[in-house]
Structures are given as structure tokens and as C-alpha cells.
Design goal:
- The chain is about 40% helix and about 15% strand.
- The strands form two sheets. A seven-stranded mixed sheet has the order 5-4-3-6-7-9-8, sandwiched between helices. The chain has a two-stranded antiparallel sheet with strand order 1-2.
- The protein is an alpha/beta fold and about 325 residues long.
- It starts with a helix and ends with a strand.
- The chain is built from eleven helices and nine strands.
């Protein structure tokens, strides 16, 4: 398959595996080709193609119906081209599969694959179980990966020296995307995926297993409630007195009510680790909310500096895929 065609197939398959709602289907002159249809079938719909599990049934149906519709519309000569029997058979199977009721579907987690196109090697990816509909106990939205985490991850992929050979703490880890990225691909010595929600912490071991990190000593989980003093319990000192070089946080400033506790925790971290580097990414859905964070930092003697890193245009993204119409701000926080 020509490189230009392969690129379109790759892009479509990666978007499907990331459960994107808007997909870029291969162009008509390619989608009608049998080799293109077979490649898509083998990667997405063949039995055993997705060992981590399949997307939601309704998602599979919607995408496959649209794919076949586009194939049919692209065919000018039915003696020369046709619709793959394998794809048609897959559609028939999906139609005959009982759909879960809405209440059950909302409770389920599904595998999501984030391809890391900016890293060397064709197969770099992070696999996660996510629930994009469910709000966990306490109102947390940590059962899905948000855009700020994807964008901050891209910054780290382009500048791996930020975490390579260093010990990292992720605040509000959610699905653990950043911690997994740091350990699995960017050479971090150790990463702590921390969160204040029991639901989120209990979800993380499954995601570590998906990325073959379940037995790794390079990553650990920690329940960390912001605003609580960083003191030891079983160990005399917090984190056993082990060094910490970098603190990461993505989309952790969206709730004004938690910002005082977040800044309090940052101050405690600077007290324990005066030279720690803190990098925060925030989706600018509400500018006033981030101003609350800035004002609180300023009032507590913390300096916040912007890091210039643009979101790639959507039509140039090869994975991970995320919205290029909403600004994402990345900042370094330091002790004045």
C-alpha cells in the first residue's frame, strides 16, 4: 500500500481506537479499494483484532455503518470494486448483538488507545480503560483523559528531558495518562500517580496492567488530598523522604473551590523540595477560574510563567487527537 494511502488508513484506525466522535475516513478513491478495506477490517473488526476489548457497541455500529455507506458511495464500477464481505459480515454480527440498556452502558468502562505519533517507533501508544459518561463519587471527572493531559503529554514527548531520569509526581492523575507516559516512554526514574478520589485510585491498577506496568517498581499510586499536610504515616516522612524532581498536573484548576487547597499543597511541596519543577496544564474553558488560580498563587508568593507550546491543527494531528479550538495553557509554577 502506498505511503500516502497508508497514512489515511492509520489516521482513521487511530481515531477509531481513541473513540473519537469525528473520524477522517480515507478518501473515496482509496476507500473502495479491497486492500484498504481489508486493512481496516484486520485492524479494527476482525476477531481478536483488539485484545484489550472492543469499543461500545453503538459506537462500533455507527462507525461501521458510515464506513460501508462511504464505500458504497465511492464505487463507480461495481464490476471493478465492491464492499468487503468481511466488513458486511461484521456489520451483520453487530446488528444481531443485543445492546446493553442505557443504564448499564453508562456504568461500563471501555478501552481507549492513544497513539503517540511524536515518539519514534510506529507502535508507541497508551491503553486505558475509561468511562466518558460517568461522574465518580465526589463529583470527580477522573475516569477519562482530558485534553490538557494530552497536550501536556505532547509537550513532554517533544521535550523528554523534562522528566527523563527524574522522579515525578502527578497531581489529579485521573486515568494515569501522564504517569504512564513518563515511565513507559520518557525514561522517568519513578512516577507517583496521585489523586484524591478512591474511585480514581481504584481504577488505576487496571490501566497499569494494560500498559504492562502492574509489576513495575517505577510507578506507584498514592491517595493525596489537597490541603492536607504532607506528613508521613507508616513512613516517618511524606513519600518516605524520597527525592522529587517534577510535579505535573493537567486540568486540575477547573473548580475554583479546590484552588486554595491545591495551592496549599504546592506550597507544601516547595517546602519539602525547594527545587522541584511544577508544570500545570489547563484547558481555558473558563478564564475566570484560571485567574482565581493565578491570584491565589500570587498572593502566596508563587510565580506562574507561561510555557509556549501550540496545539497542532486538528487536520495535522496523527495521535493523540484533541480539540484545537479550545485554548490550553501550560504554565511553570515556582517559588518566588
Amino acid at each position: 500500500m502506498e505511503a500516502s494511502v497508508q497514512k489515511q488508513v492509520d489516521r482513521f484506525c487511530r481515531q477509531y481506537l481513541q473513540l473519537e466522535q469525528t473520524l477522517n475516513y480515507p478518501e473515496p478513491q482509496y476507500i473502495r479499494r479491497s486492500d484498504v478495506q481489508d486493512a481496516i477490517y484486520q485492524r479494527l473488526f476482525a476477531e481478536g483484532a483488539l485484545p484489550g476489548g472492543s469499543p461500545p457497541l453503538r459506537y462500533q455500529l455507527r462507525v461501521l455503518k458510515e464506513l460501508i455507506s462511504r464505500i458504497e458511495a465511492s464505487i463507480e464500477d461495481w464490476d471493478e470494486h465492491g464492499v468487503s464481505d468481511c466488513l458486511m459480515s461484521s456489520l451483520s454480527v453487530l446488528f444481531s448483538t443485543p445492546a446493553p440498556n442505557e443504564n448499564d452502558a453508562v456504568q461500563q468502562k471501555y478501552p481507549v488507545v492513544y497513539h503517540l505519533a511524536s515518539l519514534p517507533g510506529h507502535e508507541a501508544h497508551i491503553d486505558l480503560f475509561e468511562n466518558r459518561a460517568l461522574i465518580a463519587a465526589g463529583g470527580t471527572t477522573g475516569l477519562r483523559t482530558w485534553e490538557a493531559a494530552l497536550h501536556l503529554g505532547q509537550l513532554l514527548c517533544h521535550g523528554p528531558s523534562i522528566v527523563s531520569g527524574k522522579r515525578v509526581l502527578e497531581l489529579g492523575a485521573g486515568t494515569g495518562y501522564l504517569s504512564i507516559l513518563c515511565v513507559k516512554y520518557l525514561g522517568a526514574t519513578h512516577a507517583i500517580a496521585s489523586d484524591g478520589s478512591d474511585d480514581v485510585i481504584n481504577n488505576l491498577p487496571e490501566n497499569l496492567s494494560l500498559n504492562q506496568l502492574q509489576d513495575s517498581s517505577a510507578i506507584s499510586l498514592m491517595k493525596l488530598e489537597w490541603g492536607h499536610a504532607l506528613v508521613g504515616s507508616e513512613e516517618k516522612r511524606w513519600n518516605g523522604g524520597r527525592p522529587l524532581d517534577v510535579v505535573l498536573g493537567a486540568d486540575i484548576t477547573f473548580d475554583p473551590s479546590v484552588i486554595p487547597d491545591l495551592v496549599s499543597t504546592l506550597l507544601d511541596l516547595f517546602s519539602l523540595y525547594p527545587h522541584v519543577e511544577v508544570i500545570i496544564a489547563a484547558t481555558q474553558r473558563n478564564l475566570q477560574t484560571f485567574h482565581v488560580f493565578l491570584e491565589r498563587c500570587m498572593g502566596e508568593g508563587l510565580r506562574v510563567e507561561d510555557v509556549s507550546f501550540e496545539i497542532p491543527p486538528r487536520d495535522q494531528q496523527e495521535g493523540p487527537f484533541y480539540n484545537d479550538q479550545v485554548a490550553i495553557r501550560i504554565c511553570k509554577v515556582s517559588k518566588s
